[in-house]
Every structure is written in C-alpha cells, then in structure tokens.
Write a structure and sequence with these properties.
31% helix; 12 helices; alpha+beta; 5-stranded mixed β-sheet; globular; Alpha-Beta Plaits; 32% strand
Length: 433
C-alpha cells in the first residue's frame, strides 16, 4: 500500500504541491503528456532546482501566455526565466499574463472547468481526483458568495495556471500509484492577502471554509501560508491526519515556494511510503450530521419530514425519543449527508418541520466496498448487496424485492428471505448491475 504523506508545517499552495511531486520523482515528460490532454493552449511549466533556508528542492512556475522574450513557452522543464509577475494570492507562485491574455487566463465557472476535464483525454482516475478537488473548492466558494455551485466564478483558481496545478496533482497521484493520502496539521498563516475581491484577511474566506475539514494552525508566519487551492487538495484527498505511518520511505519531495519568510521555510514536504499496513477494504469520506429536537409535530408530520430529508439527499435519517425543557416529550431527527448536500438537507428541515435551528457537526464515515448483483429465481428477480471484511463475506437481499415477492406469493417476508439466501448459495447466475 502506497501512502503519500503531506507535511504541511509551513502550509500548502498549488504550485508548491506540484513542485513537491516533481521533486518526489514524477517524470516531467509523462506529466506534460497527460496535461496536454486537457486541450488548453498557451501554457508552459518551468521547473528549476532551488532552496529555502538551506533546504534544497524543486520550484515550479506555470506560465500562461508568456515566456522568454515574449514567446510562448516551449514546454515542461525549460530553464526558468527570471522576471517579475503580478499575483493575487501571496502564497501562490507569481503568475505571468503578458498582454492581458484573458482568453487563456480568464475567469471560469465550476461548470466550465468540469466540462474541460470531462471532455479531456485524461484517465478516469485523474478526472475523478481533479473533479473532487474542484468540487470541494466550488462548494466552499459557493458558501462564501451565497451562489449555486455551478454558478461560482473562479478567479485565480479559474485561470489556466491553477487548472494545471489541480489536474497536475491528480495526474501525479496516479503516476505514483498512490493508494491513500494523509496529512499533518496545516499551517494557515496570518495577515492579509490581496485577491480578486480586494484585501482579505488570512486565511482567505474560501480557505477558512475548507479548513473546517482538516486540523490547522494559525499565526505560524506573518503571511498567507495556505491558499484555497492548497486547502482544497488537502480537504478533498487526505483521509487521515497526524496518524502514524509505518513502512519503507520510498522517496521524499520538497516543493519550494516563492516567498522568503523569517518564521518558517517556505516549503512543502511530501513523503511516499511503501506501507506494511494492508490496504483497507473500506472507503473513508467526510460527511456531516444535521439534527433538530422537535416537540410540536405529529407522528404523521415526522414521518413526512424523514421522507423529505431522504429526497433532499440525506444518506441516512433516524429519530430518537428525547426529553426537552419543562419535561416535554419530543423526538430528535438526525440526517447524515454529504457536505455538498447540506444546504438542500437544511432547507428540507426548515421547510418540512417546525424547528427554528439545526445542530451540524462533521463526521468521518467508513464504508465497506460492496457489489450489487441480481439473480433470476423461480419466484422473480432478487437483488443482493455483498461485501467482505476480515475474510467474511456478507450477503443481504434487497428488502423491497423480498417484500414484493412475499406479497405476490402470499408468503411471509422471512420465508422469501430464506429462499433468496438459498438461491444465492446455490450459485445461480449473477448479473452485476
């Protein structure tokens, strides 16, 4: 099992991450081949060996519509052209946009970027990783600006250079064969930053929203240490934080930033471990639980509320009897949902219940991998969920199918359940849905 561990003691930005990946050993030519599948013209990547505070590593600049002597760059790993650039987020590289080349470096919506990625020739895994990073960033920006996710306009992150940062991260993860990402606590920094919306406090609003999803630190340095792009990478991909890692350290990469800092060296360290821990057979995801205590609704209205929460995107809904103030009997309604669905689930709570407030907290969900299959039996088609853990196979027939057949055959639910399990064990032909 290959584990990529992020040591974000001095923060993380998109260009520092890409630099660390190249320093770790990702082949520059292979990365360029994959990034060209995006069909985005007018960019080049420049890579050079550099150092901060005596620590050697790699530094990366993504140039958009600019290069030596005003000509478009000739590709990856060219010698770095030393010149001054304007930039928005102080933690990121200084980007060049000669002649105001907005055709290549302008603002894009999440829908625009999703279309670019989906229509590209990238592998399915690179697409999935890229979209997961952009999606979680779009959700943070949507929350900050109170807009629908697909209508969020990325400014700095919508430019070609930041698209290369994020998609490049996904490609590097695939090229390295990484199974799991883990991270340390993330330094956010302090002070202010100048961005497309003017002067903002550090962490920038989107970074602060994303930081709800991982452990972080403030005031370790007097500048922006973690940018929205860097925060989105950690929020979307890291599964564990500050957790022990054992095995063989295969390689260590140092990404060099563009800032000189007295408090912390402006670097990102990533370490690739060939772990002696077996790969888990379950998926880990960040979700949230929303709950409300209600003492003035009927049982019928409660049932309707639970149904509406499922329709709004909740993965699970449950109720618990509780005693509220003044000894009133009540019930607590809770809904488990993905972070991206919390707004619609919250709206359903307020629309379909009498509650005036919700409690929301983040949780980590571990979910066993499962397979959905079906068998044609003498009594009808029955679907099954199968999963494995610790060498034990678990099989469960779909309750709706069992209930339908029981009703049609005037049998009990238990009788059909036993029949279905016997049919499954006999090894009848299965078709995977």
């Amino acid at each position: 099992m290959k584990i990529l561990y992020y040591d974000c003691f001095a923060g993380i930005s998109g260009d520092m991450n890409l630099a660390a990946m190249l320093d770790l050993g990702v082949d520059c030519a292979k990365l360029e081949v994959e990034l060209n599948k995006l069909n985005l013209p007018g960019w080049s990547i420049r890579v050079e060996k550099s150092a901060k505070n005596g620590i050697a590593g790699t530094r990366v600049d993504v140039l958009c519509g600019e290069c030596v002597d005003g000509q478009i760059g000739d590709g990856l790993c060219a010698p770095k052209h030393n010149h001054e650039h304007s930039h928005e987020h102080s933690g990121e590289r200084r980007h060049g946009h000669a002649g105001g080349n907005s055709a290549h470096c302008g603002h894009r919506t999440f829908a625009d970027i999703r279309s670019i990625i989906l229509q590209s020739g990238l592998s399915s895994r690179s697409k999935d990783i890229s979209l997961s990073i952009f999606k979680i960033l779009a959700e943070a920006e949507a929350k900050v600006h109170n807009k629908p996710v697909d209508e969020v306009h990325f400014h700095e992150v919508g430019a070609v250079d930041s698209i290369i940062d994020i998609v490049g991260c996904a490609v590097c993860i695939e090229l390295l064969g990484v199974d799991e990402l883990r991270s340390s606590s993330v330094e956010l920094g302090s002070g202010t930053v100048v961005c497309a919306h003017g002067v903002m406090p550090v962490p920038a609003p989107a970074t602060a929203e994303l930081a709800k999803m991982f452990p972080s630190k403030l005031n370790g340095a007097s500048h922006e240490c973690t940018t929205p792009t860097g925060a989105a990478i950690i929020a979307a991909l890291a599964k564990k934080f500050n957790s022990p890692v054992s095995g063989r350290l295969v390689s260590c990469g140092i990404g060099i930033g563009h800032r000189d800092c007295a408090e912390l060296p402006n670097i990102l360290r990533v370490m690739l471990y060939d772990s002696d821990c077996p790969q888990t057979c379950y998926k880990s995801s960040k979700m949230c639980v929303m709950s409300a205590n209600i003492d003035d609704m009927s049982g019928e209205a409660q049932a309707y509320l639970c149904e509406s929460l499922f329709k709004a995107g909740a993965r699970d809904v449950w109720t618990e009897p509780v005693i509220m103030k003044k000894g009133r009997s009540a019930f607590k309604v809770s809904a488990l949902c993905a972070i991206s669905d919390r707004e619609t689930v919250a709206e359903s709570f307020f629309r379909n219940s009498t509650t005036l407030g919700l409690k929301i907290y983040m949780v980590d969900r571990l979910e066993l991998d499962r397979k959905i299959s079906s068998i044609e039996t003498s009594k009808g088609k029955i679907s099954f969920k199968t999963s494995e853990f610790g060498g034990i196979r678990r099989v469960k027939a779909e309750a709706d199918d069992i209930a339908k057949i029981a009703s049609e055959t005037a049998s009990s639910f238990m009788e059909i359940s036993e029949f279905a399990l016997d049919e499954f064990k006999r090894g009848k032909t299965e078709t995977v849905d």
